[in-house]
Every structure is written in C-alpha cells, then in structure tokens.
C-alpha cells in the first residue's frame, strides 16, 4: 500500500528562512497532503492541505485573512482533494478516515469537505485546542474556525491504539489500522502533538516526516534553519532531537518525505497533463 502526496498549494519564501547556508534567492515550497487506499478502509486522507477556506472564503476572521495575505498560498486546483479523489474513482463521501498529523491551517483547511469521516489524531491535543482561547490558539498557529463542529465526536485517539515496533531505529509507533501497514510516529517539536507516518511494509520503509523540517537538506548537520524559523517551533529542544532522529532513519536507508520540500519525490502525485 503506497501513499501518494498531491500538492495542494505553493508558498514562496526566502530560501535562507528554511535552510541554513542556502544560496540567496527565493524557493517555492509545496504544501502536500496524502492519499492512500486501504484494502479495508478505502481512501484515507493524510491531512487536507490548503484550500479556499484559508485564501478566499467569506467570513474569514481578520487574523486568518492576514495569515493568507502574508503567506500568499497559491492553490493547485487540479490537486485539491476532490479533484484527486475523482481521478482515483472516488468521491469525498467515500472518505471514511482522515489522519490529522497536527492542527495548523495548511493541514486542516479542507476538513469541512469531509463531514462524515472519522478523524485519527491525538484526542488530548484536539480537546485542548477546542478549549483554549482564540489568542492562545493563534499563538500556536492554529485557527479554530477551520475546525468543523463535532470533531471530538468523530475523533479516534491514536494514543489509544496498540504500539508496535518500527524499522531502522525508529521508536515504536501507533498501529493505525491494526495490520502494521501504517504507524503514527511521535515527531515532537514543530507543533503540539505533531506526528508523522511510517510505512514499514514498503521497501525501503517510508517515513512521512510531515513538518519536521521544510527541506530535506535541513536534516544534515548544521543546515537546520535558525531564527525566525526556529522561533515558530512549539518545542525547540524537541525539534532538534526529532530532526536528528529523522536524519538517522534516512542514513539507515529509509525514505523520507516532508510536507513542504520543493523537490519532487517518488510519492508525489503527477500533475494533470494539459
């Protein structure tokens, strides 16, 4: 079972903001989400990527409009979830599970398009988020207006699932489907409760390390970005440890995909021919 990672949007930034010792100039980051087709559960989303809920929806809060104005995400419409699902022969109603690696806007924006799906995430983090003030959530880069009502009732807690061994020196992970095919891996530092996904049955194993870094080169010693990028980490010490852990997995022969790396990967969904 091989996941694919469509690109929901691009965001253009100064390259030195996301990679120490980067050459001068700007870099176009991708904003991936994932789709896998499980033999029992059918199509499963890994986050949802950006959507018009962030960039254009009427009624957005002032802070969300400001966020969109500053980052200027450019949506890739033919790689939006509904378009991708249609290419695969599915509709949004066929999606029964959405895995949320964390709650930042570029990972939850299109949740409202899947109102019947179960949500696989950290229940304690979701509950804490929904119980916080708007200011406290903004401090963490979270916009509760993007979280549809009733999420707690649809939530399956990944921390309640069995823990099983992961490959290539990774710690144990939560077995999401009970068949060992996809493991939720603790990757603390970037955001509260942040986790990635390991696919141990692939050869070599794949770690979708989500937002551990913006670029794979930042996994190399001395290449992780400094301030201001470092300042947005939820836990900077944990972020450094996690970066080293993912780098060790890659050195051991594992495949690593990051949400925002600008380079194409073997798991990216090809663009529609024009």
From TrEMBL:
Belongs to the metallo-beta-lactamase superfamily. Coiled coil: none annotated. InterPro entries: MBL_superfamily_lactonases (IPR051013), Metallo-B-lactamas (IPR001279), RibonucZ/Hydroxyglut_hydro (IPR036866). This is MBL fold metallo-hydrolase. Transmembrane segments: none annotated. Keywords: Hydrolase, Metal-binding, Zinc. Residues 31-260 form the Metallo-beta-lactamase domain. It comes from the Bacteria. Pfam families: Lactamase_B. Its cofactor is Zn(2+). SMART domains: Lactamase_B. One of its GO terms (molecular function) is hydrolase activity.
